[in-house]
Input
Amino acid sequence: MRTIADIDREIDAAPATREAAAEARRLLALAEEVLEAWVRARGGEPTQGEREGFRLLALHRQGADGLPSFNACRETCREIAYHYNLLAIPSAEGEAARRAAMMGLLVRHLALFVGGKLEVEKLGDFCCASTPVRRADN
Amino acid sequence: MSETKSRYQRVAYYPGCALEGTGHAYNRSTKAVGKALGLELDEVKNWNCCGAMEVKNVDPKVQTYLSSRVLSIAAHEMKADVVMAPCNGCYHNLKKAEHDLAHDGASREVVAAIAGKAGDKPYEAGTVETIHALDWIKHGIGEAGLKARVKNSLAGLKVANYYGCMYTRPRHIFPEKDKGPGTESTSKPHFMDDLLAAAGAVNVDFPLKTACCGGAHTLSDSDVSTRLVLNILRAAEAAGADVIATECPTCHSGLEMHQVRAEKVLGQKTRVKMLYFTQLLGVALGLSPRAVGVHENVSDGLEALRARNIA
Output
């Protein structure tokens, strides 16, 4: 199993092909690998299921189970899925390259968020969950 | 005039702590834009901290009390029915207090007990409506009204709108959102986009508009925050933005601070500038950049405005 840092380095690797759909598949697979690492770190087995046609979204849901602060990366995952779909549509080469670059930045944000969260459990807590530190006292 | 528009013409104003410190330019520009648009602000008397994250992480019910006290003053002492909070953290916490007091008996008991000791009148859920500065201008003036008042169009200025995380999360404390046309979306917020487009700006497609910036850990785990912010700045530049428009003092100062830190610590320079959406609207309404505090920002937004012949 690769670390988040390994996956992060892979994002900028030169694409093996200039075909946009293939690059989209590569980036989507990296995003899935990031979430697999998160699920495994919490003692789970990454799902092979899909939501709305994407395993990525099913993995996000699995990763957020019982941890609402993980929803801080929900829109990032949905944007990755959106950009994957955009890259499946034929477009001018420059436009496809721009979309692929943006998808790469989205995958990097997911990797940074999950990598940060593996180090700092409460990352994302203020914004979306506000989990009290002393839950047992409340 | 619609009932909502009528109620938003004069609102109780809760600036919160950040707008008296690092977000001073946001305070200045919010007041200046309100004045230029003919919208009135009555600052909440003797307001206190909303509880932010510090109190909330120690005891969330004390945070509920602190936020509810602000609402109570607005309701009982000022007879206001709308409180406007421009800071995402304050807005989030007031909405959370409203939700907790409406749905959680234990929160009501704690608030009543603390209010009793403090000599306050406990706040009752549903008495006042909490809104953000975006709601205030969007519904109090609207895009058509704004467009009619523009004296210095933002034409040509490419803007990435960054809403941050607290404006839309968690969904359940914002029951008025996601109600279809005319309402705000929690997954793809657009009120800031709408207002700046009305002022002439070109909104770029910015997929990280609600992404986490690591703001809550900006001091304890600076490297995590710096890398998250750097990625947001790079995405804005990749989208072609001249500026990132913000609507939260914490987001704004986080983006500015970590832009500087990314260059110093990581050697990664980005050029995109940060401006509060109220600063951009103020300039569009004919106010000088100084009048809306552009000179108080760390990021040199004036340079971006001058490059497009807007200032």
